From TrEMBL:
Native source species: Hungatella hathewayi
Main location: membrane
Pfam families: MatE
InterPro entries named among the record's database cross-references: MATE_fam, MATE_MepA_subfamily, MdtK-like
Protein name according to UniProt: Multidrug export protein MepA
Length: 430
């Protein structure tokens, strides 16, 4: 009973925090879609992977450092844990500055590659321009939350995300609906929301007297490399839905044109929330798994993993049922036209079919990187992307735009099969 209580104490706040992280873009899509129409909705959707990349970098570095912090807490090596905290903070700051410059220089080219053109392309560029100026807050805001969670502050991590989310919603309402700021207003609202999340994180560290150690001696390079090695997995796990978004948008633009891209926008928003909820389950149990692993309590580690499997599957089935019943109204929430709403209602069940597969693969991946099994985590994350890419080369040629949609759940099924294979292989070695 104690194990279940501890599990849900970490997982429920984590689920809400991850879901809210995805709501930033959805909120922007909701307000600009209703205010500016289908083209603005599609523009936010196409531009979102660039925003998500900032968040993924922050999550990768933050989780890479926080996992090592938790493992060292399990072995009671608190000095080393503080060093990982300090190195992560430096890496997050430098990454935020560099990514801001990179976005300002390359965004137009990248957006064209994603399939943005005409009015959609112009709106997407305007949105990303203002996102770029606040990149450091995006990176720091998402990167510090994992440390709070691994320091026992799961509720505080959720509070930081909620504060940022509410700020974003209020400013979207003000800047997009009441002031004529359009795409710029939506982007600025997102940046300020992330800045609020960052400030709440800083307040937590000050209140709890959690100080990073910025003296590394000769271990600086080792700490840096370890954070990168571990962080590649949570980075990939966070960003992989957006790689899916990029690939599907590109395929949809080539096979079905602008209407297909617009049709996919509300589907991607819905999918993002569900996948982030499932990632919240997996990353919510990560501190428990990492700490148990660091303590050498391997039975307890597997108990947390198996509990995560059950809960994630239950969440996915519930979401599938609710969304299937509401499929006819889903797109209208984002201001989509009646024609787009009808098409979304038709294709949404295709995407719903993959959520159960995702629930298994996400937990498996988090288990691997939480226990320093980086190779298995890499296979899980990047294998799914490669499979999706290959499917998009084949299925649309055979069945048209339907093949584009079908590629997503098929790749998710393949990832689940790989995860089961790797877990069974680990059991045989034990």
């Amino acid at each position: 009973m104690k194990l279940h209580k501890e599990f849900f104490h970490y997982v429920i706040p984590s689920m809400l925090a991850f879901a809210l992280s995805g709501v930033y873009a959805i909120a922007d899509g909701f307000f600009v879609g209703n205010a500016l129409g289908d083209s603005a909705l599609a523009a936010v959707n196409i531009a979102y992977p660039l925003t998500a990349f900032l968040q993924a970098v922050g999550t990768g570095i933050g989780m890479g450092g926080a996992i090592q912090y938790a493992i060292n807490a399990g072995t009671e090596n608190h000095k080393r844990g503080r060093q990982y905290f300090g190195m992560s903070l430096i890496m997050l700051t430098i990454s935020g500055i560099l990514l801001s410059a990179l976005l300002l220089l390359s965004a137009p080219v990248v957006l064209r590659f994603f399939g943005a053109s005409g009015t959609i392309g112009e709106l997407a560029q305007e949105y990303i321009l203002y996102i770029a100026f606040g990149a450091i807050f995006q990176v720091l805001g998402t990167g510090l939350v994992p440390f709070i969670r691994n320091m026992g502050g799961a509720v505080s991590a959720m509070a930081a995300m909620i504060a940022g989310f509410l700020t974003n919603i209020f400013l979207d309402y003000l800047f997009v609906w009441h002031l004529p700021f359009g795409m710029m207003g939506a982007a600025v609202a997102t940046v300020i929301g992330q800045a609020v999340t960052f400030l709440v994180c800083v307040a937590f560290f000050i209140a709890k007297k959690k100080k990073p150690l910025l003296r590394f001696g000769q271990d600086g390079t080792f700490l840096f490399k370890t954070i990168l090695k571990v962080g590649l997995s949570p980075f990939g796990l966070t960003f992989s839905p957006n790689i899916t978004l990029i690939l599907i948008n590109k395929s949809a633009a080539l096979v079905g044109g602008a209407a297909a891209v617009t049709c996919y926008a509300p589907v991607s928003y819905i999918s993002a929330i569900i996948i982030l909820l499932l990632q919240g389950v997996s990353d919510g149990c990560q501190p428990l798994i990492s700490r148990s692993y660091g303590e050498g309590r391997h039975d307890r580690t597997k108990q947390f993993r198996n509990l995560a499997y059950s809960f994630a599957a239950a969440v996915s089935l519930l979401c599938m049922g609710v969304l299937f019943l509401l499929r006819g109204q889903a797109a209208a929430l984002f201001g989509a036209s009646p024609q787009i709403t009808a098409r979304v209602a038709y294709i949404l069940p295709v995407f719903l079919s993959g959520y159960l597969f995702v629930s298994i693969s996400r937990v498996t991946t988090a288990y691997f990187y939480a226990t320093d099994k980086d190779l298995q985590a890499y296979i899980m994350i990047y294998g799914e992307v490669i499979i999706l890419f290959l499917l998009l080369l084949i299925l649309p040629q055979m069945t048209g735009i339907g093949g584009t949609w079908l590629s997503v759940p098929v790749s998710q099924l393949a990832a689940m099969c790989i995860s089961i294979f790797l877990i069974m292989k680990e059991k045989k070695k034990a």
